[in-house]
Records
---
Amino acid sequence: MPFRSWGQPANRQQPWRGFAAKPIWRTLNIGTGDTLIATATVSGAVIEAVLDSGSGATMISKPLAARLGMTKMEPRRINGLGGKAEVGLVRNVEVVLAGQARVLPFAIVADLGAISAAFGRPIDMMLGADVLAGGCVALDFATRRFAFEKSGSFAPSPDWTPLVLGHGTRKELFVFASVAGLDPVPLMLDFGSSSALMLSGAYVEAQSLLAGKANSTAALGGVEGVHIVKTFTADKVNLGTLQVASVPAIAHDRWTSESTVGNIGMPLLGQFDIVLDISQGRLWLRPIPAKARLPMLKDRSGLGLAASPTELTVVHVAAGGPAARSGWAAGDRIAAVKGFPIDTSYTRGSLWQWRYGPAGEKVALKLTDGTTRTLKLADYY
């Protein structure tokens, strides 16, 4: 079943010039508003994979590795955004993306359960910078498509803003950006992040970014598990000469990167057309019409949820949020939203969007014990 995006793609399409040859465009599926999913082949199996520039190495879920017969794994520990995780290493993995084949020296087999639970369906593979570095990636959000052309094949016109890509000590990609008008700092380029902006707790504290601002908490899932982070809204973020206002942000007290102070996720990057050429060390951005942009989602429920095929489980209740004020607690289980039962179509249609509705909207939530609660959405950070 194909993924559906938030809303409909805009009809207006900007011309794509600058490539040495006409790009071969392929379908780009966008799950839950901001997760980029493309068809790929790994070891001969056709799957749907998440594009994840924030990971230096491609990650494969344990169930997929088992199906592919990847039994010879070398134990390793890797650094996630908030800590270390136990993983396995498999060698010489063939990956094909958009017709371009690449044999990876290694790939990581990891527990992607926390990421899958947040997404609401199994994620079997995350294509990292090791795959994306094999070409030049173009993302066209107006028509939900992408191209994977040869590295060095793009010569931008003046309407594109160039940014230099840096490489951290752990091979993370980063660009320099300014938050709230402060001096530019290195922020990881992370296509795989559903957080528009993530900053280390130390940087947020040093720059007093929470001073006088409403803030709350949220549950953040990664390969290292689930962590509780602070949420707030950054007044603005500047990427070169481009500016985005009112950006939902996270302060992560367990940020582990030594080369960056945070990352820029897909909701923020999705305000622009994108061309990424890792081998050339360049990222190009171009403003796009509002209707074509990915939504910078802001939760107004105060509930952190893990989705299964039959229910939503509350894993976190945001401090001071609408759910906290209404007596919700971790462990509560939701069987239906607005009269629609939770099933495998929850994140494939539009039902998942209820948490991001307008402030003041009342949402009926039926629990697994048969009772129904009404939650009034509100801005709380």
---
Amino acid sequence: MRVTSRLLALCCAVVSAHSMAAPVSDLYKVREPVASQQPAEREEALRKAFDTLVLRLTGDSSSDQEAVVQLRNDPQQLVSRYAYEGDAVIVNFDPVTTERALRSAGLSLWGAERPSILAWWLGESANGSQLVGDAQEGSSDLRAAAQHRGLPLRLPLADLSEQLVATPETVTAKDPQALREVSERYDADGLLTVMAKQSGETWQANWRLWVGDKQTQGKASGDTRSVLADEVMLAVSTFLAPQYRVKPGDRAEITLEVLGADVERFAELDRLLEPFGARLQRVESDRLVYRLSASPEQLRAQLALARLQEVAPDEIDMQAIDAAGADAGVEPIGDSDVSAGDAEAQPSNAQSPLDEPGAPASEQSEPADQGTLLRYRW
């Protein structure tokens, strides 16, 4: 039996509720304000939407390549549809055409799978301080800013226990340990703290971000809370993008082995590896073997989103693994490679976590591994 595309789709739905990293919805959909529906105003809004999208996908607003300039001058060639909504135009860019055009222009792109960020946003005004919680006043501004900058944002519930912990002292602290403890329930990849103050007609904020072993901080200001939120999210996105975007010319051939996989984890890994064009080579019990072309450091950053742990070469007895694979009846995927996110991967035998009952074993010999070998496990 084969793991069909439908099964993979169902698995993705199951995994998405439990994985930390989150795919950004409507990544190629941009909302830009307009003063009117006149053609000149519309064309300018389309160019601004293109600039917003490029910044969202690259984290870099300084691109001046001739090919990018040409695309900016005529962004409608990348637009699948647009529609007016109130005082804004909603622009939907075609993902395939846009990605191909930007990669051809030499840009490094950041995929839709991104670190989920939990934001502890404390606003201070003449009436005191208030934690912005999920579905509370101010949350829509933060969500809109995160969407505009391509970030998967999570907000705390802001219940009584969290309000007691999220004080000006803990939100501005260099060590976020007090907030980390109450953040565990949200299982996010990154922690963002913001201390925002309203002074007259303007807002100002000091913010700090922790993602894995990296951290950064900064200041932002804006005439409104929504503008301030957008400035903060832009700074966060700009910091994260270089760690995850895939560079067209900075690639090496890599063989990736992942241990401890099951059907749900296979679906999650399938999404994470999609930006690298990964090709599943074989399945051996709970071991997946891929080939892909990528920067090793970018691949490591991407795999960290799924909490995968890199295994040192001397930690695994390869002879034991090969023997276990032989006993289990190792079966290659077939004569041709299977792309991550594509159709059907054929598991090794009926006892594999990725198998359906009755899957036959194969006598074919497995293909030789190529390039740099990276090994990970759950």
